[in-house]
Amino acid sequence: MTVSRIILLRHGETVWNRENRIQGHLDSPLSDVGIAQAEALAQRLAGETFAALYSSDLGRAHETAQRIAARSDHRVILDPGLRERNLGILQGLIRAEARVLHPEIYTRYRTFDPDCVIPDGENAQQFIARVMTTFSAIADRFPGETVVVVTHGGVLDVMHRHASGLPLHGARTAPLPNAGFNCLVYVVGGRWSLPLWGDVTHLQDPLPGDP
After folding, report:
1. What is the pTM of this model?
2. Which of the residues are catalytic?
3. Where are the beta strands (DSSP E) in the chain?
4. Of 26, 56, 79, 111, most Cβ neighbours within 10 A?
5. Which tens digit of pLDDT belongs to each residue from 2-60?
């Protein structure tokens, strides 16, 4: 039995995260707190041995991954399959605005309705298929090894549900903290498990600008 391990990380806090603004495929830079979170992740990973460092090609994930790369011997491999879901007309809106301007679409997005098609965006089924295909490909590429992946909250949510055997619809229940440390285990053939989720022990010291 060949087992691959994926250390799965969410990017550090961004300016738009702090503003409660929907990002999707749009981007904003890491905040001061997010930069400190990324450095804390890099410090934690300095003691890990891993075969590759993957990141979404969106700036907030890439910036987080670059800080990890600076303390390791790995270059960042950018993979658009690791992007957050394209949220179309909701992108750039503060959540309270989205709730007023697009109430039906926003509610269906928040409850992860599998049949929800966000105008100008990516439907839930496309997103789920993209995420699962990308992670299976990475795990198959590195059988028996550990890989670090930096990505986004929506991507983490899909993999948490899949590995836990939970329905791939309904409101989120898993914690998805910025710069959280998670582990997935993949057995060649397609079985996933989830030995560690939402660990933020590396963030316990006060961070600059942390409210």
Report:
1. 0.94
2. 11, 84
3. 3-10, 52-55, 76-78, 146-151, 181-187, 191-199
4. 56
5. 889 999 999 999 999 999 999 999 999 999 999 999 999 999 999 899 999 999 999 99
